Amino acid sequence: MGNDLNQAQARINALLDDNSFVELQSLVVARNTDFNLDAKKEPSDGVIIGHGLVDGTLVFVFSQNAEVLGGTIGEMHAKKILSLYDMALKVGAPVIGFIDCGGVRLQESFDALESLGAVIERAADVKGVIPQLICVAGQCGGGLSVLPAIADFTFMVDGASLFVNSPDTITGNDKDTSSAKFQFEEAGTVDMYGSLEEVVASMRQVISMIPNDIVEATDDLNRASEGLDSKVSDAAAIATEIADNREFIELKAGYAKEMVTGLIKLDGVTIGVVGNREVDGEAYLSAIGCEKAADFVELCDMYEIPVLSITNVAAFKSCTCQEKRLPRTLAQMSQRFVDASIPKINLITKQAYGSAYVLMNSKSLGADLVYAFENASVGAMEASKAARILSDNGTDAAAIEKDYAQLQDSALTAAAHGHIDRIVSTADARKYIIAGFEMFF
């Protein structure tokens, strides 16, 4: 069947535990005979399907084979993928797909189009019921590009292409908009990319976090968090330090870097992390950052994964393009936090100012618990800015700034008013966050 079949099988073998793959429906062939298609019949109809194990976890896998009929989607090709989804849904196991596809099969015309639609419908229908991981390993264009976007976790191999319109058809385009780098950094479609080996390692990491089974922790529950005082500007650094075995899987790390999203385990329980990262010394909310956070909180809520928000925010990003989009994306993020029925804890690390703080999972937005580090600043705005507004003529600004910092710009004051549940030391952060989540189990 050609070397690429071996490549399609090799992708499966690279992902799964040794000797665990069981192929299904290997003898399926295309039914259509138009345009001499019968002369090209080959078993598998361009896609390998089956089940296997990842670190002992049952998963269902399909891998498209570009050597057989270009890996194009036709009626039987799609039926194999649909049957895989049916089996996975029946047992509640993840579906993993390797995309390497030349598009819809032209010889099957409308039947092929309907087959593509059926696969997309099934993926959309089971979203939030069984986890879906899609890896773009070759070509993925046109309407098929919806499939990796629907997936809960999306991966891409260097050299693969993901696009709606081919880059050479876009007027004035001076970059490869189909590349893994573009999709990771600028489009925000891809969670992780790299070589096949790197991508498969990342996929196995994610699968270890889902389904959300509670496992016996191998890290000390009461381990002191080290060096958090120097990490308060980056939620990823804090998440890494407090996580079991200091393992943090950051998702979409190249996109909207001012917003951090990812997965950790705390005392064996999978926790979703969403938080702020300072960019060039500024702590702000942006439109794409809010959109990224909203999608992630929705994902956690669908799979009943508790959320830890790590807050360090002082303002909204300011420019014309932000004014066009921020109201909608802020509303989107706020709605996800409010609607989420999962346990939600907020940790204020450095600063929490104004309505930007309110929208980052504050108590008023529905956080079950709010913690803050001892030196965190919490208030309507920074004391220096407040002083300029409150002073009559500027002569008393210094005195007002000092008083405002003590009275209104303080985590202690916020705690006294009931907006913060506990002031915690950086060393005790892991212990108290675990204790907070354990109340809900």
From TrEMBL:
Gene3D superfamilies: 2-enoyl-CoA Hydratase, Chain A, domain 1. PROSITE patterns: COA_CT_CTER (PS50989), COA_CT_NTER (PS50980). Residues 1-229 form the CoA carboxyltransferase N-terminal domain. One of its GO terms (molecular function) is propionyl-CoA carboxylase activity. Pfam families: Carboxyl_trans. InterPro entries: AccD/PCCB, AcCoA_carboxyl_beta, ClpP/crotonase-like_dom_sf, COA_CT_C, COA_CT_N. Residues 220-441 form the CoA carboxyltransferase C-terminal domain. The keyword Transferase applies. Keywords: Transferase. This is Carboxyl transferase. It comes from Pseudobutyrivibrio ruminis. The lineage of its organism: Bacteria, Bacillati, Bacillota, Clostridia, Lachnospirales.
